[in-house]
Amino acid sequence: MLRTLAPTRRLASLLLLTSLACDARVEPQAAASAPRSDPTPVGAPAPTKPVATVAPAPTSDVAFLEFIHVPPGTPPAQAPAPGDRLPMLILIHGLGDRPEDFKHLIDDLPATARVIVPRGLDPVDADGWSWFPIRARSNDVAGLSQGIAAAADRLAALIAELERTRPTSRRVVTGFSQGGMLSFALAVYHPKLLDLAVPVGGWLPPPLWPSTLPASPPKIVALHGEIDVAVKLEPTREAVAHLEKLGWPVTLKPYPEVGHAIPPVIRRELYLQLQRGLEASP
Fold first, then answer.
1. Which of 3, 79, 136, 264 counts the most CB atoms within 10 A of its CB?
2. Domain spanning 3-10+34-279: which CATH class is it, in words?
3. CA gyration radius, the chain
4. What is the mean pLDDT of the chain?
């Protein structure tokens, strides 16, 4: 059974679709503020034995926020109806964040989409959530990879179920930190579910590197700060190079003087990539 969280309403730009009370607390934040980040660095050596993923379940129990986003300034009369066929945008938050805050990442996105903001699987800190138990700086890269793969499988089940029940034209995923890692993993291990993945400050550990190219791989555009000390750029560069060798349509865009955050320079590129992916012809 799909479980939804209860989001707040942004007048003239958000249309609430569902409101089951899983977590009704909302703390608005400024559109320019960065999501919470995973403060743990990456760089541990990776084992050579591949980590197998778990087959996704037929239904998903991942809680989520859902709303229709339209470009700011759009007249309410021009907003699409809940039953319309729309592109779907999945936003995956990082360690310690929560959907009620992370949804503000796209406040000014100049594109229309049905937005899904899933909640992490485990509570962490006072009011945040985590997608997997092993942090990025752990020497247990195999365990980290298993956690990423398991969470990606549960998210894949959610995406597949949503597509069965919501008229959908395009499927785009983006995420920050842990969410960036999951964006990579979804694109690699569930390519049929996506048209575009835009990981921000994410990484795909070597145990999760694919060995073959799927028939129709989704495009990946990775955005990463060059001075990121939480999820370092070089391991991400190596993962992208491996995907390139397989023939994957993947691009890495590094940003000088940017750490583990989503400043305006990255947000502008993120909006550009999301708009292109959501508005592309099926």
1. 136
2. alpha beta
3. 17
4. 84
